[in-house]
Design brief:
Structural class: mainly alpha
Number of strands: 2
Distance between the termini: 34 Å
Oligomer: single chain
Bound molecules: magnesium ion
Shape: extended
Strand content: 5-15%
Largest sheet: 2 strands, antiparallel
Radius of gyration: 21 Å
Length: 185
């Protein structure tokens, strides 16, 4: 599916405002044209823009498709926020919904426990050569539950976690730094 951004149209976006600790505290509405959006994501496009001037540069279709894909991905991952906020309805444990130390302890233990359950299925797969996809799906769901509860406890939207991870990995891929070690490479 191909969607062409209109160079003349002004697109509106909400952009997060971060505090000094990197936490989202507010959002602002910004307006951008298609060439400006593309220039942000594609340094080579910025260079071209400088040379020929944005008014004269046709939007490269491949860039448009990539940009649309990125935004579709972000839109989709925002669905996880709805799920994460819904989980409070099932949260019955010490400190549920407070983000206090009791809740963090419970969620940390829960995440570790469910990860262990997943590993148990992987172990059996290694041993017996059979994979139980139904059970795996349930365990992955349990892990997701605890990850989402932890996000809420730390007041971070899961979509923020996914989008920042997406950009981190995309950047590493572009710089050919996927392999190697260290969080800040
Ligand atoms: Mg489980």
């Amino acid at each position: 599916m191909k969607i062409r951004l209109d160079n003349l149209k002004v697109y509106e976006f909400s952009e997060p405002i971060f505090d000094s600790l990197g936490k989202v505290v507010d959002e602002k509405i910004i307006s951008k044209t298609a060439p400006e959006i593309l220039a942000e994501h594609y340094p080579h496009y910025k260079e071209q823009m400088k040379k020929v001037g944005k008014r004269h540069l046709a939007t490269p279709e491949s860039c448009v498709e990539d940009w649309i894909t990125i935004n579709w991905a972000i839109e989709k991952i925002q669905n996880i926020d709805k799920y994460a906020h819904w989980t409070i309805e099932t949260a019955v444990y010490p400190g549920a919904g407070t983000g206090n130390i009791e809740e963090l302890q419970y969620l940390g233990l829960g995440l570790g426990g469910e990860t262990g359950e997943l590993l148990e299925h992987i172990k059996k797969y290694v041993r017996d050569g059979k994979i139980d996809n139904v059970a795996i799906k349930k365990e992955l769901g349990d892990i997701f539950y605890y990850l989402c509860r932890l996000c809420i406890a730390f007041k971070i939207e899961p979509s923020e976690v996914l989008s920042s991870n997406y950009y981190k990995l995309t950047d590493r891929k572009e710089r050919n730094m996927i392999k190697g070690s260290g969080d800040n490479r």
